[in-house]
Write a structure and sequence with these properties.
The protein is built from 3 helices and no strands. It has a domain of 51 residues. The longest helix has 24 residues. With 74 residues, the protein is mainly α. The radius of gyration is 23 Å and the shape is elongated.
Length: 74
């Protein structure tokens, strides 16, 4: 049920499916439906934003050697 709701929210949020609404109402209470809907909507928004902004710039890598007994890392 939750996966069907997520699919509707992500692909066609303006379309109303009465069968799905009835099944969701029977499975979840109103507070759970709000939480589920907001979670899916926010995840979708963050995902779309990440796609729109593109990949992040490369992060420089710092390598620190593992010290051996009696030695220091400098």
């Amino acid at each position: 049920m939750a996966a069907r709701l997520a699919d509707v929210i992500v692909t066609a949020p303006s379309e109303r499916d009465e069968d799905l609404a009835g099944a969701l109402g029977a499975e979840f209470d109103p507070a759970q439906l709000v939480e589920l809907t907001l979670t899916v909507a926010l995840a979708s928004a963050f995902s779309r934003s990440a796609i729109a902004w593109g990949p992040p710039a490369p992060i420089p890598v710092t390598e620190v050697p593992t010290p051996r007994p009696g030695q220091s890392v400098t």
